[in-house]
Structure formats: C-alpha cells, structure tokens
Amino acid sequence: MDEKHFTDFAELEKRIKYMFKNKDLLRNALTHKTFAFEAKIPVEYNERLEFLGDSILGFLVAEQLYKSNKYFSEGELTRRRSALVNNGFLAEKARKLGLGEFLLLGKGEKKQNGAQNSTNLANALEALIGAVYLDSDLENVWMFIKNNIFDDKLGF
Prior knowledge:
This protein has helices at 3-16, 23-29, 33-38, 47-68, 74-84, 87-97, 107-111, 118-135, 138-150. It is mostly helical.
C-alpha cells in the first residue's frame, strides 16, 4: 500500500469525524476484493468487515426503533428497519460522504466505474461501521452511524 492512500484516508477521517487508532482497519474497510486479488502480497479486503458492520447497523437500528416506538408491531418495526438499512439508502449516504474516491479497486473494477457502483458503496459503508466498532466500541460506532448515516434527523 503506498503512502498516498494513508494521506487520502486522513481526509476521509476528517469527513466522517472519526480518527482510527488502527489505520489497517480503515484500509481494510475500503479495500475491494478485486484490489486484494491483484495485490502482490496478501491483502485483507472488506467483506468480513461488511458482514460485521451490517449486523451492528441492524442491531443498533432495531434497538432504537424498539425504544422509540413502543406500540409498533414486530412487522412494522421490521419494515422500518429494512427501510433504514437497505443498500440503496446506504449507497446514497456513501455517495454523500464521497466514499467512492477512497475505495481501493482492482484495474477491471476501476474501468467499470466501481467507485460509483451502489453495491460497492453500500458494502464499503457497512465495512466502515464494522471497522469503527473494532477500533472502538458500540457507543462510538453509534455516534458514527448517527453522524454519517442518519444525520440525527430520525429522532434516535
């Protein structure tokens, strides 16, 4: 990984208002598998962090919906959670953060404009959630989610 990527990541840290103690977690969250597969040395990519981040986001949103909607049925809570954690919504939030410009993509993925691909963007945002959690704790990851995804506009 060249040093330029860490400089670029410093700009992203300013945007997301979170400074990573472990910069490797941030780099892994932004590394697409195509980049890792083309690397000369083994590189971890973001799918495992995405898995973790998706679960954390779903859990924290479910908890907040449960606490703030005392009379909603399970079905209604599920519908509302689904609306808040779907890939389209997350990709739009990732676009607003400019996450695509920080993604580490393989040559073919770059040629296919992978930095603007909704799936890549949503996955990277979920991976970022997982990375923030591993770098800190639930309280900090919830602040990250509120600041960068929900903008404190949902009454959470």
